[in-house]
Amino acid sequence: MNEIHPPAQSVKTLFKALLLALVLALIILLTAVLPAEYGIDPTGLGRLSGLNKLAEPIEPLAVCDDKALLQQNRVKIIVPAASGIEYKFHLNKGDALEYSWVSSGGSLYFDFHGEPQGDTTGYFKSYKESTAAKDSGSQVMPFVGSHGWYWKNESSRAITVSLQTKGVYQILGLR
Fold first, then answer.
1. pLDDT for 46-104, tens place per residue?
2. Which of 101, 88, 89, 108 is nearest to 136 (CA)?
3. How confident is the model at residue 83, as a pLDDT?
4. What are residue 91's DSSP bridge partners?
5. d(CA 35, CA 43)
6. Which of these, 131, 86, 77, lies nearest to 109 by C-alpha position?
7. How far apart are CA 122 and CA 101, in angstroms?
8. What would the 3-class secondary structure string for 57-98 be?
9. Do residues 146 and 117 lie in contact, with contact meaning Cβ atoms separated by under 8 Å?
10. Domains of the chain, first to last
11. Beta bridge partners of 153
12. The model scores a pTM over 0.85
């Protein structure tokens, strides 16, 4: 029977390799893993190399509540005969409102405008004013406040406006 005996040199080599691996693992732990994962930087190399920034908490890009979500809506608004009505949204400065509306049975005078929040002087800014049976477009709001349409029906019968909107807004509705 043949017995195989490992040479004594290979056990020493194995032990040296194990010791070297442990030393390298400790160096990697101290210079890379602790700064990057836990923000612990005993050698200062994590700060110099920028690895400690990886351990910083990530801030959310945006905190959204239900009022700050992009939405699309459709509504039918009845403008009574020989009368006017307003329909409004609350939007923040810089928010865009995409819109499209069409009336059933005739042209209406309309004023698409906005009123700054908290203003008590009666100031409003007109974005578009005309007489038409339909309109569409997009408006970036120049200030925080209520924005929407005033429609005036000069006919002798009620007219329905079908309004579609898309944006980040809060519906205020009829005013």
1. 778 776 766 665 444 444 445 568 999 999 999 999 999 999 999 999 999 999 999 99
2. 101
3. 95
4. 145
5. 9
6. 131
7. 26
8. CCCCCCCCCHHHCCEEEEEEEEECCCEEEEEEEEECCCCEEE
9. yes
10. 9-55 (no CATH), 66-174 (2.60.120.680)
11. 83
12. no
